[in-house]
Amino acid sequence: MLLSEILISVTLSINFYGVTSLQIQESTKTCGYESCNPVKDDMLNVHIVPHTHDDVGWVKTYDEYYRQDVRTIISSVVDNLERDRKAGGNKRFIYVEMAFLKLWWQEQNDTIKDVVRNLVNEGRLEIILGGWCMNDEATPYYIDIIDQHTLGFQFIRNNFGECGRPKIGWQIDPFGHSREVASLFAQFGFDGMFVGRIDYQDKRQRERTKTMEMIWRSSESLSRAASDIFVGVLDNVYWPPKGFCWDYWCSDPELVNSSEDFNRAKVDEFLRIIKDESDNYATNHVMVEMGSDFQYRWADKWYENLDELIKLVNQRQKENEEFKINLLYSTPSCYLYQLHRSNRTWPVKQDDFFPYAHRENSFWTGYFTSRPTLKRFVRTSGALLQVILFIHYFLLKILNYNVCN
């Protein structure tokens, strides 16, 4: 798939003072922004985003991760979302890594595939980023990043159509961020992107000035409409708030079947965390990521506790008219849509989010120069792949010419 084949649905307008505002082209399909759960404009809206982060190779191999973790994760989530859909619920989930989704998809029968397509078509299961993996940003070549996303986009287009097309870049785990990758994402047609790891000093300053969200002017040579992209920095990298992890491997106390006094104290704790987070952002919307590395093996446990948390918090709206916090299931694209509705202007960033340090004297710059042999293999194999692709293309052209003439 060529970049020009990917529909661009974001435009940017620049006022005379150089401040950029976001304009999103709304979809007419039920899977578009209108499928988002409703918010309450007079309250602080907390967007609960269930997700899993599945590295395509880390301490285990690609196949080991799939067999031991990811197969169960996807099946568990799909089963829970489908039961919720039949019950008229409003749960959401996002998935990122197409390398794993394709493996899982190939094992399913037509009935399960239709279930997943329905979930995607209704915006309940949203594909985010859509690449084969979540690539690093410091060391890969442009062409390698484009190729791996092309592979993922082709799988999405062939199996899910327009409703599966990703709207959001989701770079939550790379160690620092490059504006060249932001430029590629803008040309992919993404409406925005979210990042998880920026330098701790930069983050502190942005928290103080409420500039955690901005327009990234990612290219000096391309037009602003083609290369400017909204970017948001996540408050807690991509992890759930401390004390609120309810995964298979987590040991945090659950809200389900707990005492009323415990739940009241737990809700008070959650609200303190949310109020602190909201102080770092410029609108009455905050996004809370509920999930982490290889989580949701047992999706029921997560969702039962999230249901209880949402119910207990939103009950307080009825008990106290002055209580102005609203929880809802959401996705990064739905969160971005509400930022668009706020009709704000955003600060502009032009440089990289490099170098990266997560605390004092803890810079992650060594991986620029470490493991040179491995990086050489990556460069060589990438170049070889491009040669093979060109040869394949020209052979097809020659064969087609001979057949037609």
The CATH C-level name of the largest domain is Alpha Beta
> What class would the helix/strand composition place it in?
alpha/beta
- At the fourth level of CATH, the homologous superfamily of the largest domain is Glycoside hydrolase 38, N terminal domain
Helical run tally: 11
Number of strands: 12
What coarse outline follows from CA principal-axis ratios?
Answer: globular
How much helical structure, as a percent, in the residues?
Answer: 40-55%
What does this structure look like?
This protein is α/β, with parallel strands linked by helices. It folds into 2 domains: about 40-370, Glycoside hydrolase 38, N terminal domain (7-stranded beta/alpha barrel), CATH 3.20.110.10; about 370-405. About 40% of the residues lie in helices and about 15% in strands. The protein contains 11 helices and 12 strands. A 5-stranded mixed beta sheet has the order 6-7-9-8-12, with helices on both faces. It starts with 9 loop residues before the first strand and ends with a helix.
Secondary structure: elements and pairs:
Layout lengths: L9 E5 L5 E5 L19 E7 L11 H25 L6 E3 L2 H9 L3 H12 L3 E3 L14 H19 L7 E4 L7 H10 L3 E4 L4 H10 L3 E5 L6 H4 E6 L26 H19 L6 E6 L8 H21 L5 E5 L2 H10 L6 E2 L22 H33 L1
Parallel strand pairs: 3-10, 3-11, 4-5, 6-7, 7-9, 8-12
Antiparallel strand pairs: 1-2, 8-9
Helix pairs in contact: 1-2
What keywords describe this structure?
single chain, 405 residues, alpha/beta, 7-stranded beta/alpha barrel, five-stranded mixed sheet, three-stranded parallel sheet, 11 helices, 12 strands, 42% helix
